[in-house]
Design a protein that fits this description.
The complex is a heterodimer of chains A (493) and B (474). Chain A is mainly α. Chain A has a domain of 223 residues. Chain A has 22 helices and two strands. A two-stranded antiparallel sheet of chain A has the order 1-2. In chain A, strand 1 and strand 2 form a beta hairpin. The longest helix of chain A has 32 residues. Chain B is an all-alpha fold and 474 residues long. Chain B has a domain of 188 residues. In chain B, 74% of the residues lie in helices and 0% in strands. Chain B contains 19 helices and no strands. Chain B is globular, with a radius of gyration of 21 Å. Classes of the chains: A mainly alpha (493), B mainly alpha (474). The interface between A and B is medium-sized, with 34 and 33 residues.
Chain lengths: 493, 474
């Protein structure tokens, strides 16, 4: 019963807030309870076990044999953990809101609830539906409380994601229809069984995988479907950007790891080359675009698009090591980008601008913000000691190993070598941004700017501690997720 | 206790006549009492429908039961018609002030009783139509519906836009009736039958020359295309919807369309073996999807927007028809009923204060959070956001289409869904993003508040738990 609690706690709290409960206090308590319950699941979870734990199931409809089923395995567990941590931090980061304060917190909680529901669902229908729950709250968050060109950004993200979602829906229905009648189900466990028995015909797999790849790809901002992301994150209020870039966007990656790769292995092989080319677009092309950015929020938005490339590389690698790395990197990136957006939001609140050429010298008056931003930037670059490093190393080694032959370069080796340059690119733009914002001469009129309020030490400390902990002990994540991925490799006929 | 199906129609007819008599002979009472009485009466009939024993007619039956069937589909749509009429009457009570302003009369409530009585007669027609399995019966009940709509559409006759709408509807509807009769005569000429089951039996004979029957069917299809607002027979929709009194528009877009689809499902049965028929319907569905969704994009008047959206939804419903998925169509119609009537209900209340342009909804979230939230739910459902009935309806339709390998329809359907998100969220944008010059709260009567809440709950519950609807059809 603990999983329904985790999923519905934020949603019920959101409804309570809409009905008039005190906004910030209720939201914070709800996020706190969710985090506590998720930690409980994390510590109770038996890492050696295969298959799903904490399963609860309620029948919904005879049509399509629809059940509302929740359950976790290692992969969904770390996604839940990420969501709970980032939600807690994002809600804590939320300052006073001038208009519609209730609606703001309700929207944040609905996004969190949607993400939690999607990650905990074992039924594809609800997996899909929960993710879409976040669509309209995102539209409202950016449209009402955003900054800059917020209206255009809100339209763009909404239309993009709605289209991506419906393409994804098509793919899921096609997947459901490809299984012979008797075994047909939206239950992931049943589909895995069917896939293991070879019930999904090979010729159908290619098409379905492509549809799913495009659908999920749009949701994760895979190059060339990425244009919604930087603009939306730049305009969104900081807590919304934290949640969306940190958690919600990872839904597409989770979907690939959970649905597309294990159920359609042959289909995945057919499209590996395409995926490699696209993800190099993410890493190299978007990386260069990121360097060219003149505003901090746009730069962070583009950097989050770029880093998706590494996760895609891990997913495409087809090796256990690479997939483990992808899972660790999903987690690590979620934490670090949330912290970056949070600090950027605080800076924007104080200075009113995020134009890099206007900023400077903030390190003197905002030392705490400078320290937090620096740590997050180092994490984002992938310095050793942070969880991002562990993830990237595993991804790169895993990808390099695939199809390796002595004295010959395979496509995976080429992709890995090119991807390595991405690390340099991200060091360039992150360090440059840090220098421009926190070092150098400070404009006179900002002498009154204050540092972060002390209460923000809690979310910042939490995010930094998590990324350091899993940076030094990545094994505590790998131990949990690798049974899931191992089963993918033993399943193959 | 079980009762025979035709009793329901008689009961509704009696309620209608009662309202009309009271209107004629008691001038002094508050006419809104009539509406409440009618709502109560129709609710009683709705309750009675659950004691109905399904009695499908077989081919050999003669006499009355060869015209009339009480199968599950028929009973389902009788309830559908009753629920629609009840909700429309609730809306009409809110709309009464507008009617008073635009109808001549000696007393200040002149004509209001008729305004409440006519939908009840329409409802009788819709209920007969749900049961009709003979071309003659289909024609007669369709006429009963159309006749009462002629009056209703032009009811607020001081308004020139309404008069324009009335004339357009009258002429084009009469034209489509002509097509229907002509088509029926062709089919009768070929098969010698008007009963649908017997027509099917005759057409199944491979020796029969099917061309003339197909020609007749195409003519029938033209007439039904007019009713369901399918492209290219949709010309009348935007003007009539915008000009007609708002509750009547709601009734037209739900009741008339649903009836058209029931008849379409029944009438098409004998012709579905013919590949030409499927091809023609596929093309109509494609055009309807594209036209409805694309033309809705630039609209600034909410009534007109909903008119185009009703064309668009006819497109999704036609995908279901082409994919032989009667259940999916029925479910989609229920979802369509809830979300369309909810948005019209909010529109009626808001338009009383400001107007029916989208910009009149600006800042509604501040003026009335309840109405804004109700509209948000309706728009989310129309656009197809999960956990609403509208999403599950689309899911059902796309699933059915993929089962029949209708790839083109599905691809176009998905693209147009994205358009839908744009124009439905335009309303949300106005309500939540934009500020407004007016700060006065919008008054909502208690009856409307309760009905709107009920519709919101139904949208969400049916969006998660569709089983009640599916059970009613099994």
């Amino acid at each position: 019963m603990i999983l329904p609690f985790i999923v519905f706690c934020p949603i019920v709290a959101a409804l309570a807030i809409l009905c008039g409960a005190p906004a910030r206090r209720t939201a914070l308590w709800a996020a706190g309870f969710t985090l506590a319950a998720t930690l409980l699941v994390y510590f109770e979870f038996d890492a050696g076990r295969r298959g799903f734990d904490f399963v609860v199931s309620y029948p919904i409809s005879d049509a399509w044999r629809l059940n509302f089923t929740l359950g976790v395995d290692g992969l969904s567990l770390i996604m839940l953990l990420l969501t709970a941590i980032v939600t807690f931090a994002a809600i804590w980061f939320t300052g006073p809101i001038a208009t519609h304060e209730h609606a703001f917190h309700a929207c944040l909680l609905l996004i969190a609830g949607g993400a939690l529901g999607a990650f905990a669902s074992l039924d594809l229908f609800f997996f899909y539906a929960f993710h879409e729950l976040a669509l309209i709250p995102t539209f409202l968050l950016i449209g009402i409380w955003g900054t800059g060109n917020r209206h255009a950004a809100a339209w763009k993200i909404t239309i993009y994601l709605a289209t991506g979602s419906f393409i994804l829906l098509l793919g899921l229905i096609m997947l459901y229809r490809s299984v012979p009648d008797g075994a047909r189900s939206f239950d992931i466990r049943a589909l895995q069984k069917a896939a293991a028995l070879g019930m999904i015909p090979t010729d159908a797999q290619g098409t379905i995988f492509l549809v799913l790849l495009i659908g999920f790809g749009i949701l994760v901002s895979l190059f060339p479907f990425h244009t919604w992301a930087p603009e939306a994150y730049a305009s969104a209020p900081a807590p919304a950007a934290m949640l969306h870039a940190g958690v919600l966007k990872k839904f597409g990656l989770y979907g690939l790891l959970r649905v597309a790769i294990p159920l359609l292995p042959q289909g995945a092989q057919q499209w590996t080359t395409l995926l490699l080319v696209l993800l190099l677009g993410n890493i190299i092309y978007i990386g260069l675009v990121t360097i060219a950015q003149k505003r901090l929020d746009w730069m962070l938005g583009y950097s989050s698009v770029m880093h998706m490339g590494y996760i895609f590389l891990g997913i495409a690698s087809g090796t256990l090591l690479g997939m483990n790395g992808a899972a660790v990197l999903i987690f690590a990136h979620g934490i670090s980008i949330a912290l970056l957006f949070g600090i950027a939001g605080e800076i924007r609140q104080r200075t009113g601008t995020l134009l890099l050429s206007d900023l400077g010298g903030l390190g003197k008056i905002m030392p705490r913000a400078g320290l937090a931003f620096g740590l997050a930037a180092f994490a984002s670059i992938g310095l050793p000691g942070f969880a991002n490093f562990a993830g990237e190393v595993m991804v790169l080694f895993g990808a390099f190993r695939n199809g390796a032959e002595p004295y010959r370069f395979h496509i995976f080796q080429i992709a890995t070598v090119l991807a390595l340059w991405g690390v340099v690119i991200s060091a360039v733009y992150m360090l440059r941004a840090y220098r421009k914002v926190f070092m150098g001469a400070m404009p006179e009129n900002w002498s009154g700017v204050t540092d972060l309020r002390r209460s923000l030490h809690v979310p910042i400390g939490l995010l930094v501690a998590v990324t350091l902990w899993f940076g030094f002990f990545p094994q505590s994540l790998v131990r949990i997720v690798s049974p899931t991925f191992k089963s993918y490799f033993t399943q193959k006929p | 206790m079980t009762i025979g199906a035709p009793i329901l129609e008689v009961e509704v007819l009696v309620i209608g006549l009662f309202v009309l008599m009271v209107e004629a002979f008691f001038e002094r009472i508050d006419k809104r009492t009539l509406a409440f009485a009618a709502i109560f009466g129709l609710a009683a009939v709705l309750a009675a429908s659950f004691f109905l024993a399904p009695a499908p007619t077989d081919v050999a039956t003669t006499g009355f039961w060869s015209f009339y069937t009480a199968d599950l589909l028929a009973i389902f749509f009788k309830r559908f018609a009753l629920v629609t009429t009840i909700l429309v009457l609730v809306m009409m009570v809110d709309y009464a002030p507008v009617v008073r302003q635009s109808v001549h009369g000696t007393t200040h409530q002149s004509g209001l009783g008729e305004f409440f009585a006519l939908p009840i007669f329409t409802c009788v027609g819709l209920m007969w139509m749900a049961s009709a399995i003979d071309f003659v019966m289909i024609f007669v009940s369709l006429e009963l519906v159309t006749m009462s709509f002629y009056v209703l559409v032009s009811f607020t006759r001081r308004n020139p836009a309404t008069l324009e709408a009335g004339v357009k509807y009258l002429i084009l509807s009469a034209l489509s009736t002509g097509f229907l009769v002509y088509g029926i005569t062709w089919i009768f000429g070929v098969t010698g039958e008007t009963n649908l089951a017997r027509v099917t039996a005759v057409l199944a004979d491979p020796a029969l020359e099917s061309g003339p029957a197909l020609f007749g069917m195409v003519l029938v299809l033209v007439a039904l295309g007019f009713k369901i607002a399918a492209v290219p027979f949709q010309m009348w929709v935007p003007d009539v919807y915008q000009g007609a009194p708002t509750p009547v528009t709601a009734f037209l877009s739900v009741g008339s369309k649903a009836a058209g689809f029931v008849v379409l499902l029944r009438v098409l049965q004998p012709f579905f073996m013919m590949p030409q028929m499927v091809k023609a319907l596929t093309i109509i569905a494609l055009l309807t999807l594209l036209y409805g969704n694309l033309a809705a994009l630039p609209q600034t008047n909410l009534k007109r927007l909903l008119a185009y959206s009703s064309i668009a939804h006819a497109g999704y419903l036609l995908i279901g028809v082409v994919s032989f998925a009667g259940e999916a169509v029925a479910y989609y119609l229920v979802a369509y009923l809830l979300m369309t009537l909810l948005s019209f209900a909010v529109l009626v209340v808001v338009a009383n204060q400001t107007g029916d342009n989208i910009e009149d909804f600006s800042g509604l979230a501040k003026r009335s959070p309840f109405l804004a939230f109700a509209m948000l739910v309706a728009m989310a459902s129309l656009a197809g956001v999960p956990f609403t009935a509208g999403f599950l309806g689309k899911f059902y339709i796309f699933d059915a289409a993929l089962r029949q390998h209708q790839t083109t329809l599905v691809v176009v359907g998905v693209i147009t869904v994205a358009c839908g998100f744009y124009y439905y969220l335009k309303v949300v944008r106005a309500m939540y993003w934009d500020g407004s010059s007016i700060d006065a709260p919008v008054p909502v009567s208690r009856l409307s508040r309760v009905t709107m809440t009920a519709m919101m709950v139904a949208i969400v519950v049916l969006g998660v738990y569709p089983q009640p609807i599916l059970n009613a059809l099994k």
